[in-house]
Design a protein that fits this description.
Strand order of the largest sheet of chain A: 1-4-5-8
Shape of chain A: globular
Number of helices of chain B: 11
Strand content of chain A: 5-15%
Bound molecules: flavin-adenine dinucleotide
Number of strands of chain A: 8
Strand content of chain B: 5-15%
Oligomer: heterodimer
Mean pLDDT of chain B: 93
Distance between the termini of chain A: 18 Å
Strand order of the largest sheet of chain B: 1-4-5-8
Order of helices and strands of chain A: HHHHHHEEEEEEEEHHHHHH
Structural class of chain A: alpha+beta
Mean pLDDT of chain A: 94
Radius of gyration of chain A: 21 Å
């Protein structure tokens, strides 16, 4: 009856063991980190930490062993991700590579590409960024103007990517661009994806500061950049289908509702020892939202594992998740008074400021609220 | 678009049976009869004949031994059809009576949500209860009484009750009952009042989820048919965005209700307060979804949806009634909030993953 299905997540016998293991690891690993550091989690870069995860076999958990993976279930990987985020581990360095570039390579890459790159991602030694958006192409991704043209055995790239998170820290970008001129009747046709080594000549990366003054975003300019023939990912002209497949990985994960989780932790700390009824009710409401989202998100993980294409469900999780993440700072600010400062209230205030200032991005990155709702409306048969 | 994933056979078969039966038998005439607080006896007889009210019972108590979570999923079908009959209450009463070892009476049953009951030395019950769903039609009413040895579950026979009829916001019977020195079937209950209320709340969460699925589908269909300014209103982006929100609320409610059903199933096997956080989360989330979704559905239906003739209100009225029954959002949010705050900053995440 409904075009959306969120079946019960399948059982995962290994998950509880893994959860205990990772909780123990994180308890010692993160003990010295301040609440504000923990609040950054998937925006927090710490290549040394990423390598430690790699050494434990905790990156690419579901991938074939031949490519450095562990061949474990999607649900086990889910447990790992949510534990990392809930604890506020600095996972930003490897996050995109592990979440979407690796799976894209597994799906579309050649044997040579897979065996060259996947084991390095799994080791926590190779980081990726997403080259989709451009100055004039955000929501309307099919309008990208960066182009790659055939050049002997290889390709020549010109154009500018924008909002490229972590580009300065990454080894590779998966570039989405035109390989044929825009055909107004078939706007999605003629696009392709490339694996771009960011150290190639002709690539200039410029920092763009966000409204907190932090540097995550970048502008990446391609001027006459020569790519070898084997840089093409998947098939020429199939870029659109590949990108939309990738987005299910980008949109359904626990980072889509745990961005503000550290604030909730500090809120509970600040409310103790005595919370009033108003605070209890507010926290219970948020808890109910998180519990439900977690259920939906695990359900999508189960669908991905079963080989389904839950793009609609993923869009829904991201839309609902962003609402909750953005509500948390709005609600939290009203539950803690401005009494004399204590260590708890200082930590709370810092994390609140950080989270509140980041909150506008939650319904932009990875697809805006309006675009996601358009996708859902299409799923409902309305367009 | 994805095919809905095949549920467990027993549950899917039951839901299909119920769906077909209600599609055929829950006619406008039956609804009209039920609307005045009347009792559509042929519809109940058909449900009974199909074995639906007893589906949740163990075989020893006259059921089919269907897993409890599957049997409970019938309530999503009841919700989808905005069923004006106490299927949920009969199933719940049967489940708890069987659990306490009391023979389950035939016919519609009710669980008293609020009650004050005293037991005398001979074990006779005196007291009153309010907000009893379909109380006037129930063969027996299940109440929980405090006794020195712990909570006692009682099945009060209809003949011994004085009924004061009332109605919930959807117009379904919600009665007050009084009783004095009534000899009743009684047994020690392996659970307390909070758990019984939670199990009741779970039944409402499931019905809300079912009703929201129907409301979402009806509203999408209507938006595809109704034309203004030369096109279907569903082609306007603002309307599409609202429909997307409505679908999201319905999907979240369904996921939350599944959680509640699983918690009640685990509880039926081994009672304890462990079901409270999951049911609390589900009742809060489905209650919120009900409010938001009903308001969007009415907005999109325009004036026609505001009429008696149009069927939308059968669902939206019951969404309002069900979100009020067995504890509103604030009550359950406080239960969950207290639980989470008590877990403390370091225990917060483990408390969430344990739900
Ligand atoms: C923190 C952060 C990190 C990011 N990281 C990356 C990255 O690593 N790589 C990358 O490629 N991109 C990245 N992005 C870019 C992101 O994907 C874009 O911001 C997003 O797709 C929106 O594009 P835009 O900002 O150009 O807004 P626009 O597309 O110009 O949209 C502006 C507004 O108009 C609305 N709008 C646009 N079209 C429609 C429509 N058809 N119907 C209704 N409303 C519409 C939008 O919803 C939005 O509200 C990041 C963004 C953020 C905020």
């Amino acid at each position: 009856m409904s075009p959306f299905a969120f079946p019960s997540p399948p059982p995962s016998p290994g998950a509880d063991l893994l959860r205990a293991e990772i909780r123990a690891f994180l308890a010692s690993e993160l003990a010295h980190r301040a609440p504000l550091d923990r609040a950054q989690s998937w925006n927090g870069l710490d290549p040394a930490f990423s390598r430690k995860l790699g050494q434990r076999g905790w990156l690419g958990l579901t991938w074939p062993k031949a490519y450095g993976g562990q061949e474990r279930s999607g649900l086990e990987r889910y447990v790992l991700l949510e534990e990392l985020l809930a604890a506020g581990a600095p996972v930003g360095a490897h996050w995109i590579a592990e979440r979407q570039s690796g799976p894209s390579l597994l799906r579309y890459g050649t044997e040579a590409q897979k065996s060259a790159i996947l084991p390095r991602i799994a080791a926590g030694a190779c980081f990726f960024c997403i080259g989709m958006s451009e100055p004039d192409s955000g929501s309307d991704l099919a309008s990208v103007r960066t182009k790659a043209v055939r050049d002997g055995d290889g390709w020549r790239v010109d154009g500018t990517k924008l909002w490229t998170t972590n580009a300065t820290h990454c080894h590779f970008m998966i570039l989405f661009c035109r390989t044929r001129p825009l055909d107004r009747e078939h706007r999605h046709a003629g696009t392709s994806q490339f694996i771009v080594d960011l150290s190639l000549p002709g690539i200039t990366i410029r920092p763009v500061r966000n409204l907190l003054g932090e540097h995550h975003f970048n502008e990446v300019v391609f001027e006459d950049v020569r790519l070898p023939g084997d840089a093409l990912l998947g098939r020429e002209g199939e870029g659109w289908a590949q990108v939309t497949g990738e987005l299910a990985y980008e949109r359904s994960g626990p980072e889509r509702f745990l961005s503000s989780f550290r604030l909730l932790v500090e809120l509970v700390r600040a409310l103790q020892p005595a919370a009033d009824a108003r605070a209890e009710i507010a926290l219970g409401r948020l808890g109910a939202q998180l519990v439900t989202l977690r259920r939906m998100s695990r359900s999508v993980a189960g669908l991905l594992q079963a080989g389904a294409d839950p793009a609609l469900e993923a869009a829904m999780v991201k839309d609902l998740g962003a609402l909750v993440e953005q509500e948390i700072p709005e609600i939290a600010r009203d539950l803690v008074g401005d009494g004399p400062p204590t260590p708890q209230s200082r930590a709370f205030a810092q994390v609140l400021a950080y989270t509140a200032l980041h909150a506008p991005s939650f319904s932009l990155r990875g697809g805006t609220r309006e675009i996601l709702r358009g996708i859902i409306a299409r799923g409902l048969g309305l367009r | 678009m994805m095919e809905p994933v095949q549920a467990d056979d027993a549950g899917a078969m039951l839901r299909e049976t119920a769906d077909r039966l209600l599609a055929a038998r829950l006619t406008p005439q039956v609804r009209a009869r039920a609307a005045g607080g009347g009792w559509p006896d042929d519809l109940w007889a058909a449900l009974d004949e199909a074995g639906l009210p007893a589906a949740i019972l163990p075989e020893a108590a006259g059921g089919f031994g269907v897993p409890v979570a599957d049997a409970l999923s019938l309530l999503t079908v009841a919700g989808r059809h905005a069923l004006p009959l106490p299927l949920a209450d009969t199933m719940l009463a049967g489940l708890v009576l069987a659990r306490a070892g009391i023979e389950v009476p035939a016919g519609p049953l009710a669980v008293a949500q609020g009650s004050e009951v005293r037991l005398d030395h001979a074990g006779r019950a005196t007291g009153h209860a309010w907000g009893v769903p379909w109380g006037r039609h129930a063969r027996s009413i299940v109440v929980l009484a405090d006794a020195p040895g712990g909570p006692v579950l009682l099945a009060l026979p209809q003949a011994a009750l004085t009924i004061e009829p009332g109605a919930d916001i959807a117009g379904d019977p919600s009665d007050a009952v009084r009783f004095e020195a009534v000899p009743s079937q009684a047994a020690p209950a392996p659970f307390g009042a909070a758990e019984l209320r939670a199990a009741g709340a779970a039944t409402r969460a499931l019905m809300i989820a079912g009703a929201l699925g129907a409301v979402s589908a009806m509203t999408v269909e209507y938006a595809g048919e109704r034309r203004q300014f030369g096109r279907a209103i569903g082609q306007f982006q603002a309307v599409q965005q609202n429909l997307a929100v409505l679908a999201g609320q319905a999907a979240a409610a369904a996921a939350a209700a599944d959680l509640a059903a699983e918690a009640v199933a685990a509880w039926a096997a081994s009672p304890g307060p462990g079901l409270l956080p999951a049911v609390a989360a589900a009742k809060v989330r489905t209650g919120e979804a009900a409010g938001l979704a009903a308001s969007i559905a009415h907005q999109i239906h325009g004036a026609i949806g505001f009429t008696q003739e149009h069927p939308l209100h059968h669902h939206t009225g019951r969404l309002r009634a069900w979100r009020d029954a067995f504890g509103r959002e604030a009550e359950w949010a406080q239960v969950l909030g207290r639980h989470l705050i008590a877990a403390g900053p370091e225990g917060l995440w483990p408390a969430i993953t344990a739900v």
